[in-house]
From TrEMBL:
It comes from the Bacteria. PANTHER family: UNCHARACTERIZED PROTEIN YECE (PTHR30348), UPF0759 PROTEIN YECE (PTHR30348:SF9). This is DUF72 domain-containing protein. Coiled coil: none annotated. Transmembrane segments: none annotated. It comes from Sphingobacterium oryzagri.
Length: 300
């Protein structure tokens, strides 16, 4: 079963938890007059997953995807750390303003469990800095069996991570969220190391909606349930982001997944349209599938 997937999503209470008071205080402390930045995308660009999204005859999937969206959660780097040449190839297929958000390789996070990772981290960073102005933020996703007993190992990793390279963290083990002392300790570490705290909205793991931001950046990984409730859930997020922006949020990184990924562009278009209307952003509303300007498929 996919992470966070449930058999009956209609039985889940998808209400967003209230924003933590500490989050509002952090946003207030960082409030400035800089323009608000919003990046919304999917997790993959390949045609096999996003069936129906690409017009017939599309030869370069990334180039087309980057014409429709302004960002991608780059899961490909999780399986294999890319070469400098591969990164340059990806970069050159996109236009100015597009951002990649590469995932730290599993050889570091899952297999190595953050031990003896200096050379692997260096190789990953040395390669991905070649995204140049297309680099958004890397994120480290830990296995759900990585527990707080290994906090010192996580601390050493984050404190030793190259300074100036933007990084976000997603922890999954329930112990990180059920023990308030542990959560406070984690948040303090993330704030100290300028690491963004990833929020995950998925049906089976509501505890991962901790609503604790550690930087003035909201990095949200939204997993739809291939259920009609997905629509309203996204509208609730638009209202929450609107409130955070008013409080001082500077950047939004919002990535939409589905258990069946073919519907991800449809949800993304719905979300972007609502975000533009509520916040005054001007993100392009992506083509939902098939010929541009033609009949678009419905979500359900």
């Amino acid at each position: 079963m996919k992470f966070g997937q449930v058999e009956n999503p209609g039985e889940i209470d998808f209400t967003l938890p209230p924003t933590a008071a500490e989050t509002l205080a952090l946003l207030k402390a960082h409030k400035n007059d800089e323009p608000f930045e919003a990046y919304v995308g999917c997790a993959k660009w390949n045609k096999a997953d996003l069936k129906g999204f690409y017009p017939r005859g599309t030869k370069d999937e990334l180039s087309y995807y980057a014409n429709q969206f302004n960002s991608i959660e780059l899961n490909a780097t999780f399986y294999n750390s890319p070469s400098k040449e591969q990164v340059a190839t990806w970069r050159d297929k996109t236009a100015e303003g597009f951002k990649f958000f590469p995932k730290i390789p599993q050889s570091i996070s899952h297999y190595g469990r953050l031990l003896n990772s200096d050379e692997k981290v260096k190789a990953f960073v040395d390669a991905t800095v070649n995204f140049e102005d297309r680099l958004g933020m890397a994120f480290l996703q830990m296995h759900d069996n990585y527990q707080p007993k290994d906090f010192d190992r996580l601390q050493s990793f984050l404190e030793g991570f190259p300074k100036g390279y933007p990084l976000a963290l997603e922890v999954r083990n329930t112990a990180w969220f059920t023990d308030d002392e542990i959560q406070q300790k984690l948040v303090a570490l993330l704030e100290k190391t300028d690491t963004t705290n990833v929020l995950v909205d998925t049906a089976g793991r509501r505890d991962m909606l901790h609503m604790r931001l550690t930087t003035p950046v909201a990095f949200v990984r939204y997993v739809g349930a291939n259920h009609p409730s997905d629509y309203d859930r996204l509208l609730d997020w638009v209202e929450r982001i609107k409130a955070w922006k008013k409080a001082g949020l500077q950047k939004l990184y919002f990535f939409i997944h589905q258990n069946v990924e073919v519907e991800s562009p449809l949800l993304a278009a719905h979300f972007i349209e609502a975000l533009n209307k509520a916040l005054g952003t001007t993100l392009k509303i992506p083509n939902k599938g098939g010929k541009e300007g033609g009949n678009q498929p419905s979500l359900f």
